Amino acid sequence: MCNFRRVSDYFPRCEHVIARPEEYIQCNSRYCKFSPQHPNNCTGDQCKCLKSRQYPETYQLRKEGTCPSCTAQGFT
């Protein structure tokens, strides 16, 4: 089902976390109200499709070295 994806980069050397812009992921299911594939005539009480977005996907990617800010300040 349609949801948001939240990805952040973790730099263990300086222990900083930088969040990337949130992405919207479309499921393309006809049974999801938020999908572009949802039929236009499926509305009101007759619509039994999913009517709420799922929890966001959350990922934290581990990066080697220091964050860009610490690198710019000369910390390595």
Structural class: mainly beta
Order of helices and strands: EEEEH
Q: Helix segment count?
A: 1
- Strand count, sense and closure of the main sheet? 4 strands, mixed
Amino- and carboxy-terminal Cα gap: 42 Å
How many domains comprise the coordinates?
1
| Helical fraction | under 10%
Count the E strands: 4
Task: Walk me through the structure.
- The chain has 76 residues and is mainly beta.
- The protein has one domain (3-72).
- It contains 1 helix and 4 strands; from the N terminus they run ββββα.
- Strands 1, 2, 3 and 4 form a 4-stranded mixed beta sheet that branches.
- The longest helix has 5 residues, at 68-72.
- The chain is rod-shaped.
- It starts with a strand and ends with a helix.
- The model has no long low-confidence stretch (mean pLDDT 91).
Give the key terms.
about 80 residues; mainly beta; 4-stranded mixed sheet; 1 helix; about 5% helix; rod-shaped
Task: Write the topology of this structure.
Elements: E1 3-11, E2 16-19, E3 23-25, E4 57-62, H1 68-72
Q: Summarize this, please?
A:
The protein has 76 residues and is mainly beta. The protein contains 1 helix and 4 strands.
